[in-house]
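Give me C-alpha coordinates for this 490-residue protein.
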Amino acid sequence: MKQCFFAVDLGATSGRTILGTFTPEGLEMEDVNRFPNRLIETGGHFYWDIYELYRNIIEGLKIVAQRGDVEITSIGIDTWGVDFVCVGKDGDFIRQPYSYRDPHTVGASDIFFRKVPRKQVYEWTGIQVMNFNSLFQLDTLRRNDDSALAAADKLLFIPDALSYMLTGEMVTEYTIASTAQLINAKTRKFEDALLYEIGLTRSNFGRFVYPGDKVGVLTKEVQTMTGLGAIPVIAVAGHDTASAVASVPAVNRNFAYLSSGTWSLMGVETDAPVITEETEALNFTNEGGVEGTIRLLKNICGMWLLERCRTAWGETSYPELISEANASEPFRSLINPDDALFANPADMEQAIKNYCSDHRQPVPQTRGQVVRCIFESLALRYRQVLDNLRTLSPCQVETLHVIGGGSRNDLLNQWTANAIGIPVVAGPSEATAIGNVMIQALTAGTAKDISSMRRLINGSIPLKTFYPEDTEMWDAAYLHFKQMTMITNN
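Here you go.
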Protein backbone atom coordinates (compact mmCIF):
# COMPACT_ATOMS: atom_id res chain seq x y z
CA MET A 1 0.00 0.00 0.00
CA LYS A 2 1.31 3.45 -0.95
CA GLN A 3 2.41 5.68 1.94
CA CYS A 4 1.16 9.27 1.57
CA PHE A 5 1.14 12.56 3.42
CA PHE A 6 -2.19 14.42 3.57
CA ALA A 7 -1.82 18.20 3.17
CA VAL A 8 -4.63 20.65 3.89
CA ASP A 9 -3.88 23.96 2.16
CA LEU A 10 -6.34 26.79 2.76
CA GLY A 11 -6.13 30.17 1.08
CA ALA A 12 -8.26 33.28 1.42
CA THR A 13 -10.45 32.35 -1.55
CA SER A 14 -10.14 28.58 -1.93
CA GLY A 15 -8.93 25.42 -0.26
CA ARG A 16 -7.75 21.97 -1.23
CA THR A 17 -6.53 18.71 0.21
CA ILE A 18 -3.63 16.99 -1.49
CA LEU A 19 -1.78 13.69 -1.19
CA GLY A 20 2.01 13.80 -1.38
CA THR A 21 3.96 10.65 -2.19
CA PHE A 22 7.68 10.03 -2.53
CA THR A 23 8.79 7.85 -5.45
CA PRO A 24 12.21 7.03 -6.91
CA GLU A 25 11.57 9.88 -9.39
CA GLY A 26 10.88 12.43 -6.65
CA LEU A 27 7.71 13.90 -5.15
CA GLU A 28 4.26 13.27 -6.61
CA MET A 29 1.28 15.45 -5.68
CA GLU A 30 -2.34 14.45 -6.24
CA ASP A 31 -5.45 16.55 -5.61
CA VAL A 32 -8.07 14.95 -3.39
CA ASN A 33 -10.69 17.71 -3.27
CA ARG A 34 -10.89 21.42 -3.92
CA PHE A 35 -13.47 23.85 -2.59
CA PRO A 36 -14.22 27.58 -2.32
CA ASN A 37 -13.53 29.56 0.84
CA ARG A 38 -16.22 32.23 0.87
CA LEU A 39 -16.57 35.12 3.26
CA ILE A 40 -19.87 35.44 5.13
CA GLU A 41 -21.09 39.04 5.32
CA THR A 42 -23.72 39.77 7.97
CA GLY A 43 -24.39 42.40 10.60
CA GLY A 44 -21.71 44.68 9.21
CA HIS A 45 -18.94 42.09 9.64
CA PHE A 46 -17.06 39.56 7.48
CA TYR A 47 -16.61 36.04 8.86
CA TRP A 48 -14.87 32.81 7.81
CA ASP A 49 -16.97 29.63 7.83
CA ILE A 50 -14.69 27.46 9.95
CA TYR A 51 -17.22 24.62 10.03
CA GLU A 52 -17.50 24.46 6.24
CA LEU A 53 -13.71 24.32 5.99
CA TYR A 54 -13.69 21.47 8.51
CA ARG A 55 -16.45 19.66 6.60
CA ASN A 56 -14.38 19.78 3.41
CA ILE A 57 -11.31 18.45 5.23
CA ILE A 58 -13.37 15.55 6.56
CA GLU A 59 -14.69 14.95 3.04
CA GLY A 60 -11.12 14.76 1.72
CA LEU A 61 -10.16 12.26 4.40
CA LYS A 62 -13.22 10.14 3.58
CA ILE A 63 -12.27 10.07 -0.10
CA VAL A 64 -8.79 8.78 0.71
CA ALA A 65 -10.10 6.22 3.21
CA GLN A 66 -12.50 4.80 0.62
CA ARG A 67 -9.80 4.34 -2.01
CA GLY A 68 -8.06 1.50 -0.22
CA ASP A 69 -4.81 1.80 -2.19
CA VAL A 70 -3.07 4.42 -0.04
CA GLU A 71 -2.23 4.82 3.62
CA ILE A 72 -1.95 8.26 5.24
CA THR A 73 1.23 8.66 7.28
CA SER A 74 0.25 12.01 8.79
CA ILE A 75 -1.85 15.14 8.26
CA GLY A 76 -0.73 18.80 8.15
CA ILE A 77 -2.72 22.04 7.86
CA ASP A 78 -1.62 25.47 6.61
CA THR A 79 -3.73 28.62 6.16
CA TRP A 80 -3.51 32.38 5.84
CA GLY A 81 -2.29 34.35 8.87
CA VAL A 82 -3.57 36.62 11.68
CA ASP A 83 -7.16 35.38 12.08
CA PHE A 84 -8.28 33.33 15.09
CA VAL A 85 -11.17 31.56 16.80
CA CYS A 86 -12.45 32.30 20.30
CA VAL A 87 -12.91 29.11 22.35
CA GLY A 88 -15.05 28.94 25.49
CA LYS A 89 -14.25 27.16 28.75
CA ASP A 90 -16.31 24.20 27.56
CA GLY A 91 -14.03 23.81 24.55
CA ASP A 92 -16.62 24.96 22.00
CA PHE A 93 -16.10 27.74 19.49
CA ILE A 94 -17.98 30.84 20.57
CA ARG A 95 -18.66 32.16 17.07
CA GLN A 96 -17.34 32.12 13.54
CA PRO A 97 -13.97 33.92 13.28
CA TYR A 98 -13.75 37.43 11.88
CA SER A 99 -11.90 37.84 8.59
CA TYR A 100 -8.87 40.11 8.38
CA ARG A 101 -10.81 41.98 5.69
CA ASP A 102 -13.42 43.06 8.23
CA PRO A 103 -13.52 46.88 8.42
CA HIS A 104 -13.64 47.03 12.22
CA THR A 105 -9.84 47.41 12.43
CA VAL A 106 -9.55 50.47 10.19
CA GLY A 107 -7.26 52.86 12.11
CA ALA A 108 -6.76 50.28 14.88
CA SER A 109 -2.96 50.41 14.84
CA ASP A 110 -2.86 54.16 15.48
CA ILE A 111 -5.20 53.73 18.44
CA PHE A 112 -3.01 50.98 19.93
CA PHE A 113 0.15 53.05 19.50
CA ARG A 114 -1.28 55.58 21.95
CA LYS A 115 -0.66 52.92 24.59
CA VAL A 116 2.57 51.39 23.29
CA PRO A 117 4.77 53.35 20.87
CA ARG A 118 5.00 51.96 17.37
CA LYS A 119 8.78 51.82 17.60
CA GLN A 120 8.63 49.65 20.72
CA VAL A 121 6.15 47.25 19.16
CA TYR A 122 8.39 46.87 16.12
CA GLU A 123 11.52 46.39 18.24
CA TRP A 124 9.83 43.50 20.02
CA THR A 125 8.08 41.82 17.11
CA GLY A 126 9.78 42.95 13.89
CA ILE A 127 6.36 42.65 12.23
CA GLN A 128 5.11 45.15 9.68
CA VAL A 129 2.20 47.29 10.80
CA MET A 130 -1.07 46.32 9.16
CA ASN A 131 -4.44 47.21 10.67
CA PHE A 132 -5.62 43.60 10.59
CA ASN A 133 -2.72 42.07 12.53
CA SER A 134 -4.05 39.95 15.39
CA LEU A 135 -2.68 42.43 17.95
CA PHE A 136 -4.90 45.17 16.57
CA GLN A 137 -7.86 42.85 16.01
CA LEU A 138 -7.73 41.82 19.65
CA ASP A 139 -7.30 45.37 20.90
CA THR A 140 -10.29 46.44 18.78
CA LEU A 141 -12.45 43.61 20.12
CA ARG A 142 -11.50 44.53 23.67
CA ARG A 143 -12.28 48.23 23.15
CA ASN A 144 -15.63 47.27 21.62
CA ASP A 145 -16.50 45.03 24.61
CA ASP A 146 -16.81 42.11 22.21
CA SER A 147 -18.83 39.35 23.85
CA ALA A 148 -16.93 36.49 22.20
CA LEU A 149 -13.54 37.74 23.36
CA ALA A 150 -14.91 38.45 26.84
CA ALA A 151 -16.11 34.84 27.12
CA ALA A 152 -13.04 33.26 25.51
CA ASP A 153 -10.81 30.95 27.49
CA LYS A 154 -8.48 30.20 24.58
CA LEU A 155 -7.63 31.75 21.22
CA LEU A 156 -6.66 29.48 18.36
CA PHE A 157 -5.22 30.64 15.04
CA ILE A 158 -7.03 29.16 12.04
CA PRO A 159 -4.75 26.13 11.30
CA ASP A 160 -4.56 25.40 15.03
CA ALA A 161 -8.36 25.62 15.34
CA LEU A 162 -8.77 23.06 12.55
CA SER A 163 -6.13 20.80 14.10
CA TYR A 164 -8.09 21.07 17.36
CA MET A 165 -11.28 19.99 15.58
CA LEU A 166 -9.42 16.94 14.28
CA THR A 167 -7.49 15.99 17.42
CA GLY A 168 -9.01 17.70 20.45
CA GLU A 169 -5.56 19.16 21.20
CA MET A 170 -5.01 22.93 21.45
CA VAL A 171 -1.66 24.23 20.18
CA THR A 172 -0.16 27.49 19.00
CA GLU A 173 2.19 26.91 16.07
CA TYR A 174 5.12 29.33 15.86
CA THR A 175 4.98 30.45 12.20
CA ILE A 176 1.26 31.24 12.26
CA ALA A 177 1.59 32.97 15.64
CA SER A 178 4.44 35.11 14.30
CA THR A 179 2.00 36.84 11.94
CA ALA A 180 -0.05 38.07 14.91
CA GLN A 181 2.46 40.75 16.02
CA LEU A 182 2.39 39.16 19.47
CA ILE A 183 5.64 37.14 19.24
CA ASN A 184 9.03 38.48 20.28
CA ALA A 185 11.15 37.96 17.16
CA LYS A 186 14.32 37.30 19.16
CA THR A 187 12.97 34.91 21.83
CA ARG A 188 10.40 33.40 19.43
CA LYS A 189 7.86 33.28 22.24
CA PHE A 190 4.91 35.49 23.18
CA GLU A 191 5.84 39.02 24.25
CA ASP A 192 4.16 39.28 27.66
CA ALA A 193 4.12 43.08 27.65
CA LEU A 194 1.95 43.10 24.53
CA LEU A 195 -0.35 40.41 25.88
CA TYR A 196 -0.83 42.49 29.02
CA GLU A 197 -1.95 45.50 26.98
CA ILE A 198 -4.78 43.48 25.43
CA GLY A 199 -5.77 41.73 28.66
CA LEU A 200 -4.36 38.31 27.80
CA THR A 201 -1.69 35.92 29.07
CA ARG A 202 0.11 32.93 27.58
CA SER A 203 -2.51 30.72 29.26
CA ASN A 204 -5.05 32.05 26.76
CA PHE A 205 -3.28 30.15 23.98
CA GLY A 206 -2.57 26.51 23.30
CA ARG A 207 0.68 24.64 23.87
CA PHE A 208 3.45 26.37 21.87
CA VAL A 209 4.85 24.19 19.08
CA TYR A 210 7.19 24.53 16.13
CA PRO A 211 7.10 23.11 12.57
CA GLY A 212 7.46 19.35 12.75
CA ASP A 213 6.00 18.92 16.25
CA LYS A 214 3.13 16.49 16.74
CA VAL A 215 -0.25 18.01 17.65
CA GLY A 216 -2.08 14.76 18.40
CA VAL A 217 -3.99 12.01 16.61
CA LEU A 218 -7.45 11.94 15.06
CA THR A 219 -10.20 11.78 17.67
CA LYS A 220 -12.46 8.72 17.89
CA GLU A 221 -15.22 10.88 16.42
CA VAL A 222 -13.14 11.76 13.34
CA GLN A 223 -11.94 8.17 13.00
CA THR A 224 -15.55 6.98 12.93
CA MET A 225 -16.62 9.64 10.42
CA THR A 226 -13.76 9.01 8.02
CA GLY A 227 -13.03 5.33 8.45
CA LEU A 228 -9.40 6.10 9.29
CA GLY A 229 -7.31 5.14 12.29
CA ALA A 230 -5.43 7.22 14.87
CA ILE A 231 -3.42 9.13 12.27
CA PRO A 232 -1.07 11.80 13.69
CA VAL A 233 -1.65 15.45 12.89
CA ILE A 234 1.65 17.35 12.53
CA ALA A 235 2.15 21.07 13.15
CA VAL A 236 3.66 21.93 9.79
CA ALA A 237 4.54 25.55 9.04
CA GLY A 238 0.96 26.60 9.76
CA HIS A 239 1.29 29.91 7.94
CA ASP A 240 0.87 29.17 4.24
CA THR A 241 3.71 31.46 3.22
CA ALA A 242 6.09 29.71 5.62
CA SER A 243 5.16 26.38 4.05
CA ALA A 244 5.54 27.85 0.57
CA VAL A 245 8.99 29.29 1.28
CA ALA A 246 10.11 25.91 2.64
CA SER A 247 9.54 24.52 -0.87
CA VAL A 248 11.56 27.15 -2.78
CA PRO A 249 13.71 25.05 -5.17
CA ALA A 250 16.85 27.12 -4.61
CA VAL A 251 20.34 25.67 -5.01
CA ASN A 252 21.97 28.25 -2.69
CA ARG A 253 21.03 31.11 -0.34
CA ASN A 254 21.44 33.88 -2.95
CA PHE A 255 17.79 34.23 -3.80
CA ALA A 256 14.66 36.19 -3.06
CA TYR A 257 11.21 34.65 -3.24
CA LEU A 258 7.84 35.89 -4.35
CA SER A 259 4.92 33.87 -3.08
CA SER A 260 2.36 34.90 -5.64
CA GLY A 261 -1.33 34.42 -4.99
CA THR A 262 -4.13 36.52 -3.53
CA TRP A 263 -1.29 38.30 -1.77
CA SER A 264 2.20 38.72 -3.17
CA LEU A 265 4.81 38.22 -0.49
CA MET A 266 8.37 39.09 -1.44
CA GLY A 267 11.28 38.38 0.84
CA VAL A 268 14.56 36.69 1.69
CA GLU A 269 15.49 34.02 4.19
CA THR A 270 17.69 35.00 7.14
CA ASP A 271 19.04 33.21 10.20
CA ALA A 272 18.02 35.97 12.60
CA PRO A 273 15.49 38.82 12.62
CA VAL A 274 16.55 42.04 10.90
CA ILE A 275 15.08 44.80 13.07
CA THR A 276 16.55 48.20 12.29
CA GLU A 277 15.39 51.75 11.77
CA GLU A 278 15.50 51.06 8.04
CA THR A 279 13.33 47.92 8.16
CA GLU A 280 10.90 49.76 10.42
CA ALA A 281 10.73 52.75 8.07
CA LEU A 282 10.18 50.43 5.10
CA ASN A 283 7.61 48.42 7.09
CA PHE A 284 9.29 45.07 6.46
CA THR A 285 8.23 42.08 8.49
CA ASN A 286 10.17 39.30 10.26
CA GLU A 287 7.96 36.21 10.29
CA GLY A 288 8.84 32.78 11.56
CA GLY A 289 10.18 30.16 9.15
CA VAL A 290 11.26 26.54 9.27
CA GLU A 291 14.46 25.18 10.84
CA GLY A 292 14.93 28.37 12.86
CA THR A 293 14.92 30.74 9.89
CA ILE A 294 13.25 34.14 9.65
CA ARG A 295 11.29 35.28 6.59
CA LEU A 296 12.21 38.94 6.06
CA LEU A 297 9.49 40.04 3.69
CA LYS A 298 6.99 42.62 2.51
CA ASN A 299 3.30 42.08 1.85
CA ILE A 300 2.15 43.35 -1.53
CA CYS A 301 -1.41 43.24 -2.80
CA GLY A 302 -1.33 40.50 -5.43
CA MET A 303 -3.89 38.73 -7.60
CA TRP A 304 -6.63 39.99 -5.27
CA LEU A 305 -6.88 42.92 -7.68
CA LEU A 306 -7.62 40.71 -10.66
CA GLU A 307 -9.69 38.16 -8.73
CA ARG A 308 -12.11 40.87 -7.67
CA CYS A 309 -12.34 42.20 -11.22
CA ARG A 310 -12.97 38.69 -12.58
CA THR A 311 -15.88 38.27 -10.19
CA ALA A 312 -17.61 41.19 -11.90
CA TRP A 313 -16.59 39.91 -15.35
CA GLY A 314 -18.29 36.55 -14.92
CA GLU A 315 -15.14 34.59 -14.03
CA THR A 316 -13.57 35.11 -17.48
CA SER A 317 -10.67 32.69 -17.99
CA TYR A 318 -7.13 33.80 -17.17
CA PRO A 319 -5.75 32.92 -20.64
CA GLU A 320 -8.37 35.15 -22.27
CA LEU A 321 -7.61 38.08 -19.95
CA ILE A 322 -3.85 37.65 -20.33
CA SER A 323 -4.21 37.67 -24.11
CA GLU A 324 -6.23 40.89 -23.94
CA ALA A 325 -3.65 42.47 -21.61
CA ASN A 326 -0.75 41.52 -23.87
CA ALA A 327 -2.49 43.17 -26.83
CA SER A 328 -3.07 46.44 -24.96
CA GLU A 329 -0.90 49.56 -24.99
CA PRO A 330 2.07 49.33 -22.57
CA PHE A 331 2.42 51.62 -19.53
CA ARG A 332 -0.79 53.51 -20.31
CA SER A 333 -1.97 53.58 -16.69
CA LEU A 334 -0.26 52.59 -13.43
CA ILE A 335 -1.53 52.16 -9.88
CA ASN A 336 -0.09 51.64 -6.43
CA PRO A 337 -1.29 48.06 -5.76
CA ASP A 338 -0.99 48.68 -2.01
CA ASP A 339 -3.17 51.79 -1.88
CA ALA A 340 -5.90 51.48 0.76
CA LEU A 341 -8.43 52.08 -2.02
CA PHE A 342 -7.92 48.47 -3.19
CA ALA A 343 -8.23 46.74 0.21
CA ASN A 344 -11.85 45.61 -0.22
CA PRO A 345 -13.81 47.87 -2.60
CA ALA A 346 -17.33 46.99 -3.69
CA ASP A 347 -16.21 47.39 -7.32
CA MET A 348 -12.50 46.76 -7.96
CA GLU A 349 -12.57 47.81 -11.63
CA GLN A 350 -14.16 51.12 -10.69
CA ALA A 351 -11.64 51.60 -7.88
CA ILE A 352 -8.81 51.20 -10.42
CA LYS A 353 -10.48 53.69 -12.75
CA ASN A 354 -10.97 56.15 -9.90
CA TYR A 355 -7.31 55.87 -8.92
CA CYS A 356 -6.16 56.55 -12.48
CA SER A 357 -8.51 59.51 -12.78
CA ASP A 358 -7.42 60.93 -9.42
CA HIS A 359 -3.76 60.64 -10.50
CA ARG A 360 -4.39 62.30 -13.88
CA GLN A 361 -3.73 59.21 -15.96
CA PRO A 362 -5.73 57.74 -18.81
CA VAL A 363 -8.63 55.75 -17.36
CA PRO A 364 -8.67 52.10 -18.51
CA GLN A 365 -11.59 51.54 -20.87
CA THR A 366 -11.28 47.83 -21.68
CA ARG A 367 -10.68 44.65 -19.68
CA GLY A 368 -7.30 44.26 -21.36
CA GLN A 369 -6.26 47.75 -20.27
CA VAL A 370 -7.35 47.03 -16.69
CA VAL A 371 -5.44 43.75 -16.57
CA ARG A 372 -2.34 45.30 -18.15
CA CYS A 373 -2.50 48.12 -15.61
CA ILE A 374 -2.62 45.55 -12.78
CA PHE A 375 0.22 43.36 -14.10
CA GLU A 376 2.58 46.21 -14.99
CA SER A 377 1.95 47.92 -11.66
CA LEU A 378 2.63 44.69 -9.77
CA ALA A 379 5.88 44.06 -11.69
CA LEU A 380 7.11 47.58 -10.98
CA ARG A 381 6.08 47.36 -7.33
CA TYR A 382 8.04 44.09 -7.11
CA ARG A 383 11.11 45.96 -8.33
CA GLN A 384 10.65 48.65 -5.71
CA VAL A 385 10.42 46.10 -2.90
CA LEU A 386 13.30 44.02 -4.27
CA ASP A 387 15.53 47.10 -4.42
CA ASN A 388 14.92 47.55 -0.71
CA LEU A 389 15.51 43.86 0.04
CA ARG A 390 18.89 43.97 -1.70
CA THR A 391 20.09 46.52 0.85
CA LEU A 392 18.78 44.44 3.77
CA SER A 393 19.67 40.88 2.82
CA PRO A 394 22.87 39.31 4.19
CA CYS A 395 23.17 37.45 0.86
CA GLN A 396 23.35 38.70 -2.70
CA VAL A 397 20.08 38.36 -4.59
CA GLU A 398 20.90 36.68 -7.89
CA THR A 399 17.55 35.05 -8.66
CA LEU A 400 13.89 35.62 -7.85
CA HIS A 401 11.90 32.43 -7.26
CA VAL A 402 8.20 32.90 -7.97
CA ILE A 403 6.14 30.24 -6.23
CA GLY A 404 2.43 29.64 -5.78
CA GLY A 405 -0.46 30.00 -8.21
CA GLY A 406 1.00 33.16 -9.74
CA SER A 407 4.00 31.20 -11.00
CA ARG A 408 1.78 29.93 -13.84
CA ASN A 409 1.30 33.48 -15.16
CA ASP A 410 3.99 33.58 -17.86
CA LEU A 411 3.18 37.16 -18.88
CA LEU A 412 3.52 38.57 -15.37
CA ASN A 413 6.67 36.48 -14.76
CA GLN A 414 8.30 37.87 -17.92
CA TRP A 415 7.31 41.42 -17.03
CA THR A 416 8.67 40.89 -13.51
CA ALA A 417 12.02 39.73 -14.94
CA ASN A 418 12.03 42.77 -17.22
CA ALA A 419 11.32 45.08 -14.29
CA ILE A 420 13.83 43.65 -11.78
CA GLY A 421 16.65 42.88 -14.22
CA ILE A 422 17.52 39.37 -12.93
CA PRO A 423 16.24 35.90 -13.84
CA VAL A 424 12.87 34.79 -12.54
CA VAL A 425 12.46 31.07 -11.85
CA ALA A 426 8.78 30.10 -11.79
CA GLY A 427 7.50 27.11 -9.82
CA PRO A 428 6.33 25.14 -8.08
CA SER A 429 2.75 26.38 -8.39
CA GLU A 430 1.64 24.11 -5.53
CA ALA A 431 4.43 25.45 -3.32
CA THR A 432 2.40 25.69 -0.12
CA ALA A 433 1.11 22.13 -0.30
CA ILE A 434 4.57 20.84 -1.21
CA GLY A 435 6.12 22.64 1.76
CA ASN A 436 3.37 21.23 3.97
CA VAL A 437 4.15 17.70 2.77
CA MET A 438 7.89 18.18 3.14
CA ILE A 439 7.61 19.26 6.78
CA GLN A 440 5.58 16.13 7.43
CA ALA A 441 8.25 14.12 5.61
CA LEU A 442 10.99 15.64 7.77
CA THR A 443 9.04 14.61 10.87
CA ALA A 444 8.60 11.08 9.53
CA GLY A 445 12.29 10.81 8.61
CA THR A 446 11.55 10.52 4.88
CA ALA A 447 13.51 13.75 4.24
CA LYS A 448 16.71 14.85 6.01
CA ASP A 449 16.74 18.64 6.02
CA ILE A 450 15.46 21.69 4.16
CA SER A 451 18.48 21.89 1.82
CA SER A 452 18.09 18.32 0.58
CA MET A 453 14.35 18.86 0.37
CA ARG A 454 14.85 21.87 -1.92
CA ARG A 455 17.25 19.94 -4.14
CA LEU A 456 14.67 17.16 -4.44
CA ILE A 457 11.97 19.66 -5.45
CA ASN A 458 14.35 21.30 -7.95
CA GLY A 459 14.91 17.95 -9.61
CA SER A 460 11.35 16.64 -9.58
CA ILE A 461 9.13 19.66 -10.28
CA PRO A 462 9.03 21.37 -13.73
CA LEU A 463 10.46 24.89 -13.47
CA LYS A 464 10.55 27.70 -16.03
CA THR A 465 13.13 30.51 -16.14
CA PHE A 466 12.42 34.00 -17.51
CA TYR A 467 15.31 36.30 -18.44
CA PRO A 468 15.11 40.12 -18.53
CA GLU A 469 14.10 41.77 -21.82
CA ASP A 470 13.51 45.39 -22.86
CA THR A 471 15.23 46.58 -19.68
CA GLU A 472 15.72 50.17 -20.83
CA MET A 473 11.99 50.56 -21.47
CA TRP A 474 11.18 49.07 -18.07
CA ASP A 475 13.76 51.25 -16.33
CA ALA A 476 12.04 54.30 -17.81
CA ALA A 477 8.64 52.94 -16.80
CA TYR A 478 9.93 52.45 -13.25
CA LEU A 479 10.83 56.12 -12.94
CA HIS A 480 7.41 57.03 -14.29
CA PHE A 481 5.80 54.57 -11.85
CA LYS A 482 7.41 56.23 -8.84
CA GLN A 483 6.41 59.69 -10.02
CA MET A 484 2.84 58.80 -10.95
CA THR A 485 1.95 56.67 -7.96
CA MET A 486 3.86 58.61 -5.31
CA ILE A 487 4.22 55.33 -3.41
CA THR A 488 5.41 55.51 0.15
CA ASN A 489 7.14 52.47 1.56
CA ASN A 490 4.60 51.89 4.29
